[in-house]
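Repro:
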Amino acid sequence: MSNPRKMPKLTGLLPILVVGLAILPAVPAAGRTNGYGIVIRVDAAPLAWSESKLETKLQKYLTRMPNIRALPHGRQAGPMPAFPEDTFNLDSLVDWGLETGQDYLMLVMVGSERLERRKTFNVPLVFHRYETVGVIEGELRFVDLRKGKLLIAEPFEVNQKGKRIFQAAMDDDVNDPSIHLTASQKIRFFDSLEDKLARRLADKITRYTRGR
C-alpha cells in the first residue's frame, strides 16, 4: 500500500500571505474617489473698481472642509457646453452640471455689489451719523446633480460697515467727502466683504452634504 502524498509545507508562504492581507484594505476600489465634487459658478456683473474673487474664495473655504473637492467653473478641464441662459430651469442646470463630472452645482447669482451712504443715527436738532456701507445681494442655488434635486434656492444679502462721520444737524450732507472710499480702499473693502459672503455660503451648503 503506497504512502499518502505529503502536503507541501506552507511555512515559508505564511508571512507573505499575512502581509498581503494587511495591504488589501488600503487599496481603493477601481474608479472610486474620496468625498464629493462641487462645481462653482458665480454670475456677477463686472465691478468698476476691481475683479470679483468670489469663485476663488468659495473654493478656498469649501476645500478646507473634509471630503469636498470644489472646482470653479472657469477652471474646468476640457471643452464645456455653454452655461444655460435660463438659470431657473432645474433640468437645464442638471444637464449642464453632469457634464462637469461633479456631484453638486453651486450657482451664485450676484444681483448687486455696491456702496451705500446711510444715515444710521440721529439726534434731532443736535447731530447725526452717516456711514458708508458695502452690500452684496443675490440668489444662491445648490443642486444635487446625481439626484436631479434642488437643495437650496434662496436670496442672500451681506453687509459691511466702512467709514462713518458725525455731523451737526444743520450740515446733513450725505455726500460729505469724509465718508468716501478711495479706489484702493474700495478694492480692500470689497475683498473683505466677498470673503465674508464666501464663508457664509460655504457654511450653508455643507449643512446639506454632511453624511454623504
